[in-house]
Amino acid sequence: MKTNIIKNILFISALAFLFSCGQAGDRGGNGALSSNIAEKVYVAPGERDEQYAFLSGGYSGNLTVYGLPSGRLFKEIPVFSQFPTSGYGYSEETKPMLNTSFGFIPWDDLHHPDISQTNGELDGRWIFANGNNTPRIARISLTTFETEEIIEVPNSAGNHSSSFITENTEYVVAGTRFSVPVPQKDMPISEYKANFKGALTFIAVDQEHGHMDIKFQLLMPGFNYDLSHPGRGKSHGWFFFSTYNTEEANSLLEVNASQNDKDFIAAINWKKIEEYVNNGGGTKMPAKFAHNVYDESTHTATSTMKNEVLTVNPVDVPGAIYFLPTPKSPHGCDVDPNGEYIIGSGKLSANITVHSFDKMLAAIDAEKFDGDAYGIPILNYDDVLAGSVQSGGLGPLHTEFDGKGNAYTTFFISSEVVKWKLGTWEVVDRKPTYYSVGHLMIPGGNSRKPHGKYLVAMNKITKDRYLPTGPEMEHSAQIYDISGEKMELLYDFPTHGEPHYAAGCDAELLVNNSKKIYRIDENNHPYAIKSPAEARVERDGKEVHIYMSTIRSHFTPDNIEGIKVGDKVYFHITNHEQDFDVPHGFSMIGQRTSEILVMPGQTKTSLWEPERVGVWPFYCTDFCSALHQEMQGYIRVSPANSNIELSYTLDGDDI
Amino acid sequence: MNRVLSITLIAALFIITACGGGGGKSKIDQIKEQSKMEATEAESNVPASERITLDNKGVGPIKDLPLSETIDQEMVERGKTLFSTNCSACHKIDKRFIGPSPKGIMKRRSPEWIMNMILDPQLMVEQDRCAKDLLVEFNGAAMANQNMTEEQARDILEYFRTL
After folding, report:
1. Looking at the predicted complex, does its ipTM rise above 0.85?
2. Residues of the signal sequence (chain A) (predicted)?
């Protein structure tokens, strides 16, 4: 009892000292207080995080936005999946975003986000992401944080070594994981070998608007192209892809694709191929793929079906493509900030293989080849090897950099992050992850200038980290402080879906460009109304168009009669608010779609096909003001053969 | 034991809170000023929408706004359009609606008050007695900030002069 009292007194005194006026809480100091880990991730109410982190949502199809170091979730950006929260993929304007050559696809598996760059540094214009399943690349605006464009990638399957960008955002690159017949045809699976192809697609990015267009597709041998990264600095102009299944197995890959001691990293001189193509090289080939573009001024997406793609046969551009032997089915393929080292993580290996760009060029110059694969020269492993990290871990996957000469590699099997020195290959530190880490992300880590303060490890297995929620749990992530010699585990937070990779940047890169409202006078939506006085209802056969306005807290009009069973009713809703963070929502009873959320100054359209006679209410779904519960209206639905005239009112008056 | 704890706890609390100080007015001073301000505006039974408060310039960016004798027709036209796009969902010329009609507003409110109400309705409702009473009179329907520039608000004011 007595010891308890003393303990309590000591504890409280310590607390008092902590919070007292002294300047002892200096964050960078070495005093005992600086070891207070909680303080490092604590972002006080009303304060903001230092950095943005964009985590892929994996099979959620979406991209999530977090703050670092707090790990707080700010937004889920719908990209490849329908999203009832905002109406993305449900509203008439956004349905075309999910169109493909296979038709409307409400979902995909979003993998690798990458922020646009200028001169090898993050510029905060856009973030790109790949849909893995039905191959697509998306571009998301970093001013509106909305998906603006999606382009389908033909001849690809399992769009996994994507969507990485070159250092001036000249190209966003998309490589196929599964090789397939190109063009697709009916043939025996057993004839895979030498017949299937792996398409690596270079998509040009228009610098003003970010619009994407397939420049060329390289039809590579039928391996699995797993991950890729651009060269930077001196290796700018090259792109590196890891491969596995150079055995070209078509069944039980678990065993049959692990036979070769070494697979390859493919080094591709894209500038050379670009030149070849610009001079008329390549073969045009019929290929159907969708190109979907969202226009911010009309608030509307359009989908265009394309019919042709330019393909390049690797042997037609000699000197552009080489294979670098890399042990044990390499997964991650990462390039250091100086562009010299290409890191291949043999996922079944204990060690990390590092190739040298300079040595590669020297070997190419000396024409020291160890044979070829389908006409593509293979370099000697020893000629290109810079070094090997004897990690002591097992199952290396991905590597990021801190810009201070260190690399950090995740180890899936041994559940850890290992810090090592570029050049000396010595292991400096290792910290466990919880559990089975896949990707890791250092903001700016995939650029010439990483912001090496925090590292986020994204895990595949959660198990006991959080309160249990049945068999299915969100994946765990951990934040480490990497500003010192040793890594320090700071925080642990659940993510959404399954994050494969992430991209991050300093907050100031985006904060001032983040849009607050859409200006109503710049709204060019064909069904927008610039003033509530223009609100109206028009019938065109069985189609009814309702031009509706919202402002706190009423709809104009809010009483509509003359709608009939069997009509197709389009609600075109313009939000006349011009203040930050005042969206209005809309939903209609019995509507076979989601609500829509309309941002200030925006117009969105929701379709309703009334099936029953009656008087049916609609309401605002977003708590918009103290009188939000009053924001509602009624629609009278009459039998299909009724003679009731269209009418629409607000407060009993015609509009 | 409880007593010992309480004493240390109180002492600790004292240390924690004692360090405040620094710049700015104390909370007590602020409350005093607020009540003084409110006391000068006589309590009135007249509804806020019918009160004449021409001497009150309100709170916000506009401190002093002399009006010329003549009305600028170009400004009126622009103001009318802006009013239609940004204000007419809640303000009708010929009737009381979500908010009051702007008809005759120049006889009740100062130009500065009107501009401040358009430009920063939230601050007005927090600090201006008349704006506060209007909010209550109009069922708590807070006026929306439509992010108007001073020039745009001035055009709307010119339009109000013609009503």
Report:
1. no
2. 1-24
SS3 A500: coil
Residue of chain B minimizing CA distance to A10: B8
Residue A17 has pLDDT above 90, yes or no: no
Best of B147, B148, B151, B159 to disrupt the A interface (most A CBs within 10 Å) is B147
CA–CA separation, A175 and A189 (whole Å): 21
Residue type (1 letter), B51: R
Tell me the residues of B at the A interface, defined by beta carbons under 8 Å apart. Answer: 1, 4-5, 8-9, 11-12, 15-16, 18-19, 84-86, 88-90, 97-98, 139-142, 144-148
Instruction: Decide if pLDDT at A6 tops 90.
Output: no
Contacts with B148 from chain A: Cβ below 8 Å:
578
Give the up-direction half-sphere exposure of residue A401: CA atoms within 13 A in the CB hemisphere: 22
Interface test with A, best of B78, B80, B83, B90 (most A CBs within 10 A): B90
Q: pLDDT digit string (tens) for A564-599?
A: 999 999 999 999 999 999 999 999 999 999 999 999
Is there a contact between A20 and B19 if contact means CB atoms under 8 Å apart? yes
Query: Could you give the CA distance from residue A33 to residue A36 in angstroms, rounded to a whole number?
Result: 6
pLDDT (tens digit, 9 = 90+) per residue, A590-629? 999 999 999 999 999 999 999 999 999 999 999 998 889 9
Query: Is A553 within 8 Å of chain B by CB?
Result: yes
Per the CB < 8 A criterion, the answer to whether B155 and B79 are in contact is yes
Domain with CATH 2.60.40.420 in chain A: 520-654
Nearest residue, CB atoms, B85 vs list A530, A552, A582: A530
Q: Which CATH class is domain A87-393+416-431?
A: mainly beta
Distance in angstroms (rounded) separating the CA atoms of residues B59 and B39: 17
Helix (H) or strand (E) holding A253: helix A253-256
Report the gap between the CA of A355 and the closest CA in chain B (Å): 56
Do you know the residue count of chain A? 655
Other CB atoms within a 10 A radius of the CB of residue A309 amount to 23
- Hey, is B35 helix, strand or coil? helix
Chain B residue numbers with beta carbons less than 8 Å from the beta carbon of A530 are 84-85
CB contact under 8 A, A553 and B141: yes
Mark yes or no for CB contact B142/A625 under 8 Å. Answer: yes
Provide the 8-state DSSP code for A246. Answer: T
Distances (CA, A) of A462 to A41, A437, A465, A544: 21, 10, 6, 50
Q: Report yes or no: A573 and A598 within 8 Å, Cβ to Cβ.
A: yes
Q: How far apart are CA A516 and CA B147, in angstroms?
A: 11
A554 and B85 within 8 Å at the Cβ level: the answer is: no
> Which residues does chain B have within 8 Å of residue A651's beta carbon, measured at their own beta carbons?
97
Beta-sheet pairing, A543-551 with A568-575: parallel
**Which pTM does this prediction carry?**
0.89
Minimum distance, in Å, between the CA of residue A552 and any CA atom of chain B: 7
Second-level CATH architecture of A520-654: Sandwich (2.60)
Three-state DSSP class for residue A240: strand
What is the interface size between A and B, counted as CB pairs within 8 Å? Answer: 81
At B121, which helix (H) or strand (E)? helix B121-127
